[in-house]
Amino acid sequence: MKRILLSNKNCINVLLGLIVSLFVACTSNEKQRLLQIENVLEESPDTAWAMLSQDENRLSKYSKSDRMKYLLLRTEAMNKLFYAMDTINYMNDVLEYYAFYGNTGEKAWANYLMGCVYRDKGNSPKALLYYNEAVAKIDTTKSGCNFTLLSKVYGQMADIYRLQRYPQMESKILDKKALVALMTNDTLGYVRAQERKISVFYQLGKMDSVYQIATRAYRYYKKIGKDDYAAATLIPLTEIYLKRKDYVKAKRTLDEYLAKSKLLDEKGEPLYPGTEYFYNYLGWYYIEVGQLDSALCCYRKLLNNPSDIENLETGYKGLMSIYSHKGMVDSVVKYVRLYADANDTVNFRLSAKEVGKVQALFDYSESQKEAARKAEEAKNVWKALFMSLLMIVILLLVIRKMKARNQKIQTQYDYTKKELVSTKKESKLKDSKIVNLNGILSIYKTNANEEKWKKENVFMESKIILAFQAYANTGKQPTVSEWKDLQKLVEASLPAFWQKLSSFEDILDDELRICLLTRLSFMPSQIANLLGASKQSITNKRKKLVQMLFKSDNIKKFDALIKEME
After folding, report:
1. Minimal CA–CA distance to 296: which of 274, 269, 318?
2. pTM exceeds cut of 0.85
3. 108 with 134: CB under 8 angstroms?
4. Triad 124, 181, 191: Cα angle to 5°
């Protein structure tokens, strides 16, 4: 049984593709052009092929990634247009490229097309090998899964098992194809996958199942308005009706197939290779109803397509039956001989196919074993590489840890050394401060200013100033509230000083605080701690303040000048 379902080219899609082609021709962006070709490829492969052909001479200017994408699209277009792919010699390069640089979708696509190349070369085991690779790379659990490609792969695998007359495996693959359709809520795809099981049950001789599937598919296609799909399912039913001698239903199916399947033209001539087998059933019907001349025309039309030996066998058998009914012994003898020759040829080819099937399955099994062996070798290599890499990583971590430890020790040493130097300097400054304070104390005592000294001492022993001194020694910064408290204390206790200091409108907050802290006898290092700044920064600001407040360049007099502001 032969049945080919092909749809006519849609005029609108062709025109759309031509418009896209003209638009893309105006740009030099190869990636954009390849994207446009890919967009029209599914609906209008002939337009995509024309666009690819236009770019063939420019292929040398493409980057490697664009060139590989071009070749992938070219192969897909050839596959869709049923061009022979047995002469393609670049797919190994394409497959190797995408194995390293492609995403999972591109890897699956490349493996699928490589399988199609081996399909056309007649190497079924290799084709199955790459189809299985494509399936393995499609993860149905991911949201971006390419279910359309997965369905195509299963369809090609089913065709291989059908041609090898292996209905059990064909049925399993078609079940997977149907499951993909269910997962994507594609009811039409599910019905078409089930319809393809007609060939499975036909080979198994289960004609009741053939009848049920064909009938269900016919009703569904009619329900959704796919009259051509529905008509194309009728040939299996025609054979069943003829065997039941239900000629009324047989004629009705033949008429509908002829009128609506879109596989024959208005004159009843086949539009596609393989559809001429329709004349076998039409001739069979005419023989059964006694219209021998009409039957004769049908079988002669079948003989006009001798490329398929089964057409010759069926045609000779039909003519033999017709001339037998007419009682034309010479013609019967002639076609008996021709039928016998054709039948022998068919049997020989079928036997060769059986041998080829066994050999193919053996080769496929061996190729699977070889693939498993190579996979195990690759696994061992990866294990060795992983262990080596792990050892290197551990060694690097140990070295890094040792370096970090040494660096930490060195940093701590440098910090301690600097602290020692700083402490010595501060000690000297404190000694100097003590001398200054003793001098001041002596002056106060000498000038009988003991009351003022006592007042100053009480002021310096206030809670907020003591808190600031504690902060200065521990490196902690006061809060905003504490700064305000200190400012209020100075305003209340040293009003003359505060009035003079406030008269400088350009003075900044940090500069104001430096003046306050200096008046309160805080050292520059302590001021740096309180302000959270570096000592150098405090020195620079003191230099600026002595110039701004006192018009002097002598920073050493800054402390004394500040205290004289009262």
Report:
1. 318
2. no
3. yes
4. 90
